[in-house]
Amino acid sequence: MFTKILIANRGEIACRVIKTARKMGIATVAVYSDADRDAVHVEMADEAVHIGPSPAAQSYLIPEKIIAACKETEAQAVHPGYGFLSERAAFCEALEKEGIVFIGPKPKAIRAMGDKIESKKFANAAKVSTVPGWLGVIENADHAQKIAGEIGYPVMIKASAGGGGKGMRIAWNQSEVRDGFDRARSEAKSSFGDDRVFIEKFVVDPRHIEIQVLADAHGNALYLGERECSIQRRNQKVAEEAPSPFLDARTRKAMGEQSVALARAVDYQSAGTVEFIVDKDKNFYFLEMNTRLQVEHPVTELVTGVDLVEQMIRVAAGEKLALKQSDIKLNGWAVESRLYAEDPYRNFLPSIGRLTRYRPPEEGQFGDVVIRNDTGVTEGSEISMFYDPMLAKLCTWAPTRIEAIDAMSEALDSFVVDGIEHNIPFLAALMQHPRWREGAISTGFIAEEYPDGFAPVIPNSEEKAVLSSIVTAVELLRRDRLDRLGGRLAPHSGVLKRDWVVKLGDDYLQASILEGMISIPTEIDLSIDGGKALTVSSDWRPGDLIWRGTVGKRSVVAQIRSVANGLRIAWKGMSVTARAMLPRIAELEQLMPEKAAPDTSKLLLCPMPGLVVSIAVTEGQEVKAGETLAVVEAMKMENVLRAERDLIVSKLNAKPGDSLAVDAVIMEFA
């Protein structure tokens, strides 16, 4: 067994690998760029080596720097995590030449599965079910139209060397094939330097289900069940679960056995994932094989009890698998939510900055529920523009699917993140969505359910009563605390006032205190808008960010933030400003004029903190609606800013290379 390994990665996956290595008694070496000098993975590792400037292309993506760090620290092996160099066969070969072990598959398997056309040929040879399509060279658009007609519409045109949704087009008829073929080739050429594309049948309303495989160098291979990964946005996974609510035992077995057959066909040695698309009739088709650890691997670990990182290390050290297929049992249900530094209310644009608060829910087993949080940041960490925006992978396990989802909902509600925008409100809303809870999902779920983007969930009447009850209880404690300050007049002291008005968003609701007194813990009975009596119980104290308690028969975990003249309360994807006040104050407040928002219609504002890549216009230029104005890069994503209407550019306030804050003025219009 190795005594020291180097992790050629950063963030949460580097921390994840270090935890298992530490459990196995293996020393670890972290590598870091300028931006990651104070990162959590650097602090966790036994040693750390600086490998260059902040951009990944000048640090984490340079094999020579990783190898030099191995030699400097005498690390015997390298775990690549995912992304960066994890699927680069040339990197494996370079390590082998230096006598350093790559904790992953051999170069042959990486090359075979890294090319989408070649991988499908291997799959066909291994008798793995594949989507009907054409894997040969497609000469031109006419040839593409002929092939599509033979396969039957709709078809998917895909770049052979593609990934992340680039070089991918769906064609529903003959005319769309020609345009889709030309655009897919052009995009593939510019993105991957390889303009080869292939055409296959497009499966309508598919699920994305993947099988986890594990194989050693001694001919042993097995599968560890499946993961449901259909909740995706722009071809990127958002939430995953294991097992799938859709598969039956027969289909699971067939998919697993075919995945093992493919692993054997390419002499696979390590943990890997075979991805399938599955139609409504449970017909499944090979999509691709990822020759690395998957981001969503924790859900498999939670339902099987197998540490996949440990198995990867043991296989790389030459050990035989200690597990047989009969040892693999799926126990309970696990759900994973990917927490990203992105603003769900601004079409999920990246958000960067410092984490002024970062307080995940406590990890561990609580009754029948397990909470796990794989993360690479902490309070005070800087979220930079140079890397993937993932903050954490929050996972919950429970005996049943609904219990796991409910546990996730509560965990998200208690996950405190301040200083940047994040997607917790969207994830919290997802956990309440009827289709998700029923398991009636497909890869089109987000596009279908949120066609106009995400907005805060609007509370129904019952939820308004719950929120109003919390706000009233909080206000009573706040006023009581003020009354106890020494040397202060106590205008609110004396008999507890029974009648209140709660402003919840734009609504005014009557709150009547029926029973109880102001104390900690709180227990009062009240009625909202003349409804049935609700008992509010909580040990919340002024200043706490999390309100935990019960309202009526509902257990509630909500986040509370102070804002001007009130509170912002977040719960289950809802986010409302609220204020409890005496009736006379509410009467006067309704007479106050509303403050008009500033007119920004003649300004192009930067939608996120980022780097100006290009300015596509000049001062005095007339621009038509839809034309490109500028391109801003943040977190490896280039965001094209387009004109929303016809206009004339009057002034440019930024130039390529400028770093801009959110809402900085890029240009002005006449």
Q: Tell me which oligomeric state these chains represent.
A: single chain
* N-to-C CA distance: 69 Å
What structural class do you assign from the helix and strand content?
Answer: alpha+beta
What summary fits the major beta sheet?
Answer: 9 strands, antiparallel
How much helicity do the residues have? 25-40%
**Silhouette:** globular
Strand neighbour order, sheet with most strands: 14-13-10-11-12-15-23-21-20
What's the tally of helices? 17
Whole-number average pLDDT? Answer: 93
Radius of gyration: 28 Å
Give the percentage of residues in beta strands: 25-35%
Salient structural properties:
globular, alpha+beta, 27% helix, 670 residues, nine-stranded antiparallel β-sheet, single chain
How would you describe the overall organization of this protein?
This protein is of the alpha+beta class. Helix content is 27%, strand content 32%. It is built from 17 helices and 40 strands. The protein has a 9-stranded antiparallel β-sheet, with helices on both faces. An 8-stranded antiparallel barrel has the order 25-26-27-28-29-30-31-32. A 5-stranded parallel β-sheet has the order 3-2-1-4-5, sandwiched between helices. A hairpin with a 2-residue loop joins strand 30 (554-563) and strand 31. Helix 4 (89-97) runs antiparallel to helix 5 (107-114), helix 7 (141-151) packs across helix 8 (174-192) and helix 12 packs antiparallel against helix 13 (424-432). The relative contact order is 0.08. The model has no long low-confidence stretch (mean pLDDT 93). Residues 120-317 form the ATP-grasp domain. This is propionyl-CoA carboxylase. Pathway: Metabolic intermediate metabolism; propanoyl-CoA degradation; succinyl-CoA from propanoyl-CoA: step 1/3. Residues 1-451 form the Biotin carboxylation domain. One of its GO terms (molecular function) is propionyl-CoA carboxylase activity.
